[in-house]
Write a structure and sequence with these properties.
The protein has 260 residues and is mainly beta. A hairpin with a 2-residue loop joins strand 9 and strand 10. 31% of the residues are buried.
Length: 260
Amino acid sequence: MSPVVTRWWPVFALLLAGCGGASGAVPRAPHLRPEQLHDAATLSVADLGALARRPKGIIKQELTIAIHDVQSGKGFEGRGAVMVKPREALRMILLGPGGTTAMDVWIAGARFRVAIPAIDRVVRGDASTPREKMRGMPVDLLWRWLVDPFGGTPVAARRGLVADDGRVIDGDGLVAFLKRGPTSFEVRARHGATARGWFFERGRLVGVATGREIAIGDGLFPADVDYVGLDPRMTVEVRATGATVVPEVSPAVFADPDAR
């Protein structure tokens, strides 16, 4: 067993045993048998890095997004653009009816700021911010799906496909188990242009995402995504119209909006 697996074994054991899954419409979380940690399909950290195909350069994408908070029944829809500096930062501005700014999202590393001008609300936080205070704000999803897919600390990775019951079976896909910070864990799966993710907090499954990836240069970048949040209960739908590499961007794009 590798040192990385040993370090995160208490969390990873839940997935090895198949625990933490969900029933109903939410796909069961992937899990590995112990022998799958070192069989012929096992990937090294270097192999995973190469297969992740992270794009290079700053990426701009036009999109529409719809967010629905199941508990409150409130929803949000907007269209606009997002700029992504892979593994580092994001700035997304969405417009509502009439062309006014409906949501302005800034993320840099662990810090974030979400502004909703219509209700004069600005929320700032970081990795320590309680997730229940972030209702209706897809900060975690944007970071994990757009900014830093396959990020964090690799715990285990292998070639294969995720079956309906959560087993990882032989196939030409990729499945990676990743530690994200002190309390977060994630499983990512890719097969062709389809990407999926299972997100955990403190050992509990809190969200599942399914999306489509597109080629941009030698890398892959997310396009459409459907996210079902279990805690808090919410849905997020994102539809994109492609992505381009921007040769030059003003530093102000990714600067803290409140530091001006």
